[in-house]
Specification:
- This protein has 18 helices and no strands.
- With 393 residues, the protein is mostly helical.
- Helix 3 runs antiparallel to helix 4 and helix 6 runs antiparallel to helix 17.
- The C terminus is likely disordered.
């Protein structure tokens, strides 16, 4: 099996997350309020914020492949921990394990893919590979959603997490066969001072480039808004009278549609350009959020949630490509981890507020605030047409 195919297989396996259509309901079934649910994700984001740069440095110094292997093992352990969880504190520990695992992968996996394709002539383009990864990920999620909804409705929520641990372990095992990237074959271990120097260089690279700053904030804020919105999808489905056993089928149908849209995102990029797609999709996604925020409640309203999911899946590979085009390769994993750190920091700012609004006012008020965040983000961090040609200022 070629390395590119292994990358695709990893995308498929890591998204055999059977708990996707039921995780918020699982938390509520254990007695958690919206505020407690959002605090679990907020504390997880704070933890991710603290460890993103150290794990990014680890990847740049000791190798992306090693970091990816650690990530996949920790995620496997976290799924088992979720299965044994019984309340707020055990769920918090399981989520921290999951965030720890993700931190070894975030920024690192995209950097590995980007560098591997750059080093191997004849490889497909980065955007094409990322789009295909999104395609296989959504296909995998579609399959997992059906199984997860059925298992949860018949055998209970906890078993769904134990089921998800099986492909997570296979994903860890196949990562052991990934190729080493050439740039790390001769890299010696570095001192703490050199580690800090690498982080400082990566931070300066982002700060000194106007275009990179815009991309980072645009990407981070939109992703954080989507992260908060998806927590309301399952309660909304329940509130409009959809039974639990059908959750997986609904998720699956929309995820299949999103899979094909994500796979051909690179064609949209070729036709319209990455800058236009990033800018206009941000503004377009404000509309369904506004409709939901104004109180629209019907089965068809579920489609508005998944429309924003579609936008996120089209934007994500394009935003990653824009980001990597504007940074240097020698600290790409560290810089990518800083991007993830910014995402975590933005979530820290308003996730508690969103949870508070949902508990003490209503879910619709919380979504209305998210719609305003998306609109303001799209306008304030509008990416200029000539972004790729802008020199650092």
């Amino acid at each position: 099996m070629t390395q590119v195919k292994k990358i695709y297989l990893s995308s498929f396996l890591k998204n055999q997350t059977y708990f996707v259509p039921i995780i918020v309901l699982f938390f509520q079934d254990l007695g958690l309020s919206y505020s407690q649910i959002f605090w679990i994700f907020t504390i997880g984001s704070a933890f991710a914020f603290l460890i993103e740069i150290p794990t990014g440095i680890f990847a740049d110094v000791y190798g992306k492949r090693q970091s990816i292997i650690i990530s996949k093992f920790l995620i496997f352990i976290s799924f088992v921990a979720f299965g044994f969880s019984s309340g707020f504190w055990t769920l918090l520990v399981a989520n921290l394990l999951y965030e720890f695992g993700k931190s070894f992968r975030s920024g690192t996996e995209t950097a590995y893919v980007y560098n591997y394709l750059s080093e191997n002539k004849g490889s497909p383009s980065y955007t094409l590979v990322k789009a295909n990864q999104k395609f296989y990920a959504r296909i995998s999620e579609a399959i997992a959603a059906i199984l997860g909804g059925l298992v949860a409705s018949r055998l209970g929520f906890s078993l769904v997490f134990f089921l998800a641990a099986l492909p997570a372990f296979v994903n860890f095992a196949q990562a052991l066969t990934w190729e080493q990237i050439k740039e790390y074959e001769s890299q010696a271990k570095k001192t703490l001072a050199s580690h800090l120097s690498l982080a400082r260089k990566a931070l300066l690279e982002i700060w000194q480039s106007r275009v990179v700053r815009i991309i980072v904030f645009n990407f981070a804020i939109f992703t954080a808004a989507f992260f908060a919105l998806e927590k309301f999808t399952q309660p909304y489905m329940k509130s409009v009278g959809i039974e639990l056993q059908y959750f997986g089928f609904i998720y699956s149908a929309f995820l299949l549609l999103i899979a094909f849209l994500a796979r051909y995102a690179y064609k949209l990029e070729e036709k319209f350009g990455s800058i236009k797609i990033m800018n206009y999709l941000s503004l377009i996604s404000f509309i369904p959020l506004l409709i939901l925020g104004l109180g629209y409640s019907a089965i068809w309203g579920v489609g508005l949630f998944f429309f924003v999911l579609m936008v996120e899946n089209i934007r994500s590979p394009i935003a990653n490509n824009l980001f990597h085009q504007n940074i240097s390769s020698d600290s790409r994993a560290t810089t990518g981890s800083i991007l993830e750190m910014f995402k975590s920091s933005i979530r820290l700012i308003f996730l508690p507020a969103i949870g508070y609004l949902a508990d003490f006012y209503s879910m619709t008020i919380a979504i209305l605030l998210l719609s305003l965040v998306v609109l303001i983000n799209g306008l304030v961090f509008w990416i200029p047409k000539n972004a790729k040609e802008i020199d650092p200022v």
